UniProtKB/TrEMBL annotation:
GO terms for molecular function: ATP binding; ATP hydrolysis activity; L-isoleucine transmembrane transporter activity; L-phenylalanine transmembrane transporter activity; L-valine transmembrane transporter activity. InterPro entries: AAA+_ATPase (IPR003593), ABC_AA/LPS_Transport (IPR051120), ABC_transporter-like_ATP-bd (IPR003439), ABC_transporter-like_CS (IPR017871), P-loop_NTPase (IPR027417). GO terms for biological process: D-alanine transmembrane transport; L-alanine transport; L-isoleucine import across plasma membrane; L-valine import across plasma membrane. Residues 4-245 form the ABC transporter domain. This is Branched-chain amino acid transport system ATP-binding protein. Pfam families: ABC_tran. The keyword Nucleotide-binding applies.
Amino acid sequence: MALFEATHLHKRFGDQVVLEDISLAFEEGQVSGIMGPNGAGKTTCFNVLTGRYKPDRGRVTFDGEDITGVAPHRIVAKGISRSFQIMTLFDEFTALDNVVMALPSTRRRGFDGLHALDGDSAAQDRAAEIMGRVGLKGREGVNAKSLSYGERRALEIGVALATEPRLLFVDEPTAGLGTEATARLTDLMRELKRYTTIVVIEHDMRFLFALADKISVIHWGQVIAQGTPDELRANRWVRRSNIGELANA
Ligand SMILES: Nc1ncnc2c1ncn2[C@@H]1O[C@H](COP(=O)(O)OP(=O)(O)OP(=O)(O)O)[C@@H](O)[C@H]1O
């Protein structure tokens, strides 16, 4: 059984059918990719998988438990985290404190815990370790607003990792990144795979083909192809579209 499964998901907005019978399975310890052209329904699919939207039909299970329509904060508490396309950092806080605030131990203490951020050396050590994992060693004391765009993306992933997820959803991590930063991010994601199961939505096919164990291609609200990067490269539909070409580039 896969760690996370979605079966026969349907979602419509008014008259527009956005997801039509989508089934996906994400295996523990793997990086799974979701790709597809603009407007294909990827973000809607992510929102259904992570509890922001309730599907009209279909079922989502995590570790065998039915989580269909469960509220996002409850889903996070079950061990599923999401790194957002929209930045969600506290700009005036240091990079390290952004990570400290996301740690379960800090969150358990509630808002008062924030006053004691400096005093909790265990939390500081744990956050520093996470900073290292996402390639931000040495940047702990820098305010989030002073980090480069690529560093902020890495910090966001660090914040998501700090919640100690069993499954991490990452939404378009390469958006706005140049070639060099994208290459660094590829290395970072490969490293993260050692600690957690990852699902990535991505436009950048080269990035996804270099990273993912399995990729699902969504188009017109349906899964039109699925497989390992090699299987997809050999897929007739993929070969005839420009996806295969770009993935081999
Ligand atoms: N809340 C909403 N209300 C109405 N229509 C929506 C809503 N969210 C998405 N849609 C529509 O659903 C379709 C799929 O959008 P979605 O954002 O899921 O695609 P996408 O593959 O993520 O595209 P992109 O890569 O451009 O973000 C689009 O036609 C969009 O206009």
